[in-house]
Amino acid sequence: MTQIHNLNLPVSPQQIKEVKTGDLVYISGIICTGRDHFHKRLLEYHKHGKDFPASFSDLKGGAIYHMGPIVKENENGGYSIISGGPTTSARMNPFQTDVCRLLSCNIVIGKGGMTDVEWSKIPAIYLQYPGGAGALVSKFITKVKSVEWLDLGSPEAAWFLEVSKFGPLVVTIDSNENSLYDR
């Protein structure tokens, strides 16, 4: 039976283990956007012993959203996310296990699923947000907390977003590696 989970970030590994494929999730807290270059840069930083920016500590027990936002710079120098639909997650397959481990991140959000990620060992879950609904994401964002690595370009930068009841997100891969994509 489908359950609904309202997760306040950060979450514990035990909370993640209670979430099953087919369940619906709503997230509140700090999430971070991350696409290809984000993942590659994190691994390069780690490889060369460089410290991650302090804001990355918000990802412990948190969520990475595979998304390249459309961003508007406000008059006060801040930012607003205009649209933020998911990008295809498969491009991050080679990096996701290591990135989640390095950041102690338990949730990945995107579209299309992922393979070769050690969900049970992290432990982590994969949540799907519907493609084509990017404009709705701005309704869940209460604040753009910060941005890192803007030199990568707006879509590839790490946007730290405060969200409230972001969802519904469908659990398509759980921490036991059960996957709706295998059906």
TrEMBL record:
EC numbers: 4.2.1.32
InterPro entries per UniProt: Fe-S_hydro-lyase_TtdB-typ_cat (IPR004647), Fe-S_hydroAse_TtdB_cat_sf (IPR036660)
Keywords: Lyase
Positions of the Fe-S hydro-lyase tartrate dehydratase beta-type catalytic domain: 6-182
GO molecular function, one term: L(+)-tartrate dehydratase activity
Keyword Lyase: yes
Gene3D superfamilies to which the protein is assigned, alphabetical: Fe-S hydro-lyase, tartrate dehydratase beta-type, catalytic domain (3.20.130.10)
Descriptive protein name: L(+)-tartrate dehydratase subunit beta
Protein's organism: Candidatus Lokiarchaeum ossiferum
